[in-house]
Amino acid sequence: MTQEYEAPIVVEPSGPARACVIWLHGLGADGHDFEPMVPELALPEALGVRFVFPHAPMRPVTINGGYVMRAWFDLRAQDLSWAPDLEGIAESAAYLERLMEEQLGKGIPPGRLILAGFSQGGVIALETGLQRTLKPGGVMALSTWLARPAGSGEGLRVFQAHGEMDPIVPLAAALEARNELEGLGAEVEWHQYPMAHAVHPAEIRDMAGWLRQRLA
């Protein structure tokens, strides 16, 4: 079944766009979820960063009793490694590819195109980064896991952050993802914070520093 996607939220820089971050939300949220993060990152205006916040389509989610909500793919069990919805993941990754191509067509260089995702959104960002031959400038993988450890991480730089008390995506799953990413050739900058399934103030500062470094 082909999903319908609403137009994403786009936050433009004050001057010409010279870089872009495409940021995917988690299960049950929408594109507005991380929109307030833009001013908190306080990136230099000279970087010219455009932010794109897509909305996941509405779909039934098995672990929530089939309730229809925004989701990048179905979750079939609390055990995230059990029977992943590879079809749904591939479909959302293809959508992210289309968003990337739009930005490349607007003149954003591949090395200045960053993918970011929280939880489910991070799964899609990592999947897309691993499968692409022409790698993005980096991936911010936040409180997430790796559903399908396949593809190539050569040339892929990853900022990976996780909460030490995350009850939704266990820290062990994130550490396993880090090891798998490194095994595929990715360069991973690992951060963990005293938090649950959320974003920590120190994490925002660390993301901002990583973005400044990647986009300088």
Can you give a write-up of this model?
With 216 residues, this protein is of the alpha/beta class. The protein has a single domain (9-215), classed as Alpha/Beta hydrolase fold, catalytic domain (Rossmann fold, 3-Layer(aba) Sandwich), CATH 3.40.50.1820. It is 30% helix and 22% strand. The protein contains five helices and nine strands. A seven-stranded mixed beta sheet has the order 1-3-2-6-7-8-9, with helices on both faces. A hairpin with a 5-residue loop joins strand 4 and strand 5 (67-70). The chain starts with 8 loop residues before the first strand and ends with a helix.
SSE topology:
Elements (H helix, E strand, L loop, with lengths): L8 E3 L7 E6 L12 H5 L7 E5 L4 E4 L5 E4 L15 H20 L7 E6 L1 H12 L6 E5 L14 E7 L7 H13 L3 E7 L7 H15 L1
